[in-house]
Write a structure and sequence with these properties.
The protein is mostly helical. It has four helices and no strands. The relative contact order is 0.16.
């Protein structure tokens, strides 16, 4: 199954999760791996639009995905695994594991 979705658009994320559940009956696993790389020689000269594209994809888009995934998993009384990278942001101890 393939569902085209722009994670910057919450309605498309909800559609993606809905179609997945329609096709498979439930959502057991979710890997939020969409993102765009940001390389710049001088970020001070890059456009605000470019900065917002990165933020809206990598941060806001991931939030839309998590929100929809968790909502579905709660309905199923499912298990949610935390991504290791997400844990790193919340714990100094975790960063020592690297």
């Amino acid at each position: 199954m393939f569902v085209k979705a722009d994670i910057q658009k919450e309605s498309e994320v909800k559609n993606l999760i809905g179609k997945t559940v329609d096709a498979y009956g439930r959502l057991d696993v979710a890997v939020n791996n969409a993102g765009i790389e940001y390389n710049s020689d001088d970020f001070t000269t890059d456009s605000t639009a470019r900065h917002l594209e990165v933020i809206n994809t990598n941060l806001v888009g991931t939030m839309y995905c998590l929100r929809s995934e968790v909502e579905q998993m709660k309905k199923q009384k499912g298990l949610l695994w935390k991504n290791y990278c997400f844990r790193m942001l919340r714990s100094k101890k975790c960063s020592k594991d690297l």
